[in-house]
Amino acid sequence: MASPSDPEFLASHGMSTSPHFIDLPQFEGRKPTIGVCAMDSKARSKAMTNILNRLHATNRYTVVFFTEKTILDEDIEKWPLCDFLISFFSTGFPLEKALQYTRLRKPFSVNSLVRQFLLFDRRIVLEMLGHAGVPTPRHLVVSRDGGPQVHPLLQRVVEQRMGLTLGQSCSGGP
């Protein structure tokens, strides 16, 4: 099994091998396209509009919005092509479908879709914070559903990068 520090492992999981954290692709004679894949309330929010206006003002990028109809109703093969993808979960957003798109088209993900699965369950968030030594307020975890459900890809990445098996300290006990 490849090590998380092995460049081939990192590249196969969409992670950078650059000592400067990210490797940006080269675009010969064309403007790279930034795809915004989120529900309209997030994609067209004041904060996102501000960010995208600043990027647009540089005249170095083209921005394309994935409409809610596209995200919800179209097959991922029909989604717009982009070089960079900004995508984030909100109510009604098909995160798994967006992840399938990134596997198919391989845009540079500005924010990790896989890691967004972490935010679905605060027990996982607390477990990772504790493992990383981040102080959290005193809390009590009550698990009435058999413990958190962890996306398999996320489970592998967290185990390999952090040495943490998610869900074990949250699953309750005798």
From TrEMBL:
Keywords for the protein's UniProt record, in alphabetical order: Kinase, Transferase
Name of the featured protein: Inositol hexakisphosphate and diphosphoinositol-pentakisphosphate kinase
